[in-house]
Amino acid sequence: MVFDLGVLVSEPPKYPTLPDYADSLTLSHAHLDHSGMAPALYKKQSLPIYATELTFQLSQVLQEDNIKVTEQQGYPLPYNPKDIQKSITGRIAMGYRQPRNIHSGISMQLYDAGHIPGSASPLLELEGRKLLYTGDINDKDTRLLAGADVPEADILVMESTYGDRLHPLRDSSEKALLAAINNTLDAGGVALLPVFAVGRSQEILMVLEKLDAPIYLDGMAKLATKITIANGGFVRDALELRRAANHSTWIEHDHQRRELTNEPCVILTTAGMLNGGPVIQYMRSLAGDRKNSILLTGYQVEGTNGRLLLEKGHIIDPDTKGRLPVSASVRQFDFSAHADQKGLLEIADKADPSEIILMHGSPEATAALEAKLSEEGYKVHAPEIGETIEL
Ligand SMILES: [Zn+2]
Ligand SMILES: [Zn+2]
């Protein structure tokens, strides 16, 4: 049984070694670092793939986009669009809290992980022993999603992305973002918000619902929003999300993009780390004017334009490969979709396991969380990559 099979989206992209054989593949959520290699495994051997219906739909969008980007960058593809289509045959959609026998003697249930729409923490049960794999998890409510639903387990395999940090309250991040937008609009500028397509763009749309200014939505965020609305059972308030989406104007054509930059407004567009997509076009026309602002609401991975913008105050235009200087104000806000150190400790307390295995974190974050959990009396282990653990 394989849980998640992702790609490391970087230049060049990094792919994991595929297992020789797997009985099944379970995807916790749609993000490419968890779902990006699923079609490659299915191409090697047909097998059942378990996930929520929304994870299947969103991961397909992200996989298809990733193939396009990888091809444009000139790197070898681990699979092609036809392989993505073929892997649909293996899909078995599961709802939350619906046990299913996936192998003789092994049953599995998915619990809502609160990370992005459709995200799940699989709970395995074998001979009365339970193993919970959190996937990426957020224990706190946001406007879009309810916090994670955490069951008890004997063994807890937990992510540790923010194992060494605390997030501000969501409410204060929302207020800070709205204040920055209002300042920009008052100065006659445009607020450009590069957003992740899945989850973040829908949440920010909801945060901006009461804003009295034109809001535009562009890029892959439109499709992700459409799919999320069509699967409204996965969000806290589908009606509210629909209302927020209707409050924005969706951009379809180039000429619209050019016209937009003349009046004070808010533009939400992908890519969230400014590595491609319509955000580049907006940057070309907006970045040079200091009355505009670029407001980041997501983590900016090293090696991306977003990180370059924060650290050096410019980006590299992917078409010309030239430097695009930025005079507009640049700010970053914490809207993390991961539990922080305190949240992860609370998740551990809820699961109440006899053993914890940590993963999905930088060495520093994982070590800090390992120390905290040990202090609280948990038996905890942070394996090296490739290490085998006997359970
Ligand atoms: Zn994720
Ligand atoms: Zn992840």
Fold and architecture overview:
The protein is α/β, with parallel strands linked by helices and 391 residues long. Among the domains are: 93 residues, 4-Layer Sandwich (Metallo-beta-lactamase, Chain A), CATH 3.60.15.10; 163 residues, Rossmann fold, CATH 3.40.50.10890. Helix content is 34%, strand content 19%. The protein contains 13 helices and 19 strands. The strands form 4 sheets. A 7-stranded mixed beta sheet has the order 5-6-7-8-9-18-19, covered by helices on one side. Strands 12-11-13-10-14-17 form a 6-stranded parallel beta sheet, sandwiched between helices. Strands 1-2-3-4 form a 4-stranded parallel beta sheet. The longest helix has 21 residues. The chain is globular, with a radius of gyration of 21 Å. The two termini are 14 Å apart. The mean pLDDT is 96. The structure holds zinc ion (ZN) (2 copies).
Shape: globular
Rg from Cα: 21 Å
Widest sheet, order of strands: 5-6-7-8-9-18-19
Helix fraction by DSSP (H/I, runs of at least 4): 25-40%
Q: What is the end-to-end distance? A: 14 Å
Question: What is the CATH architecture annotation of the domain at 170-332?
Answer: 3-Layer(aba) Sandwich
State mean pLDDT (0 to 100 scale). 96
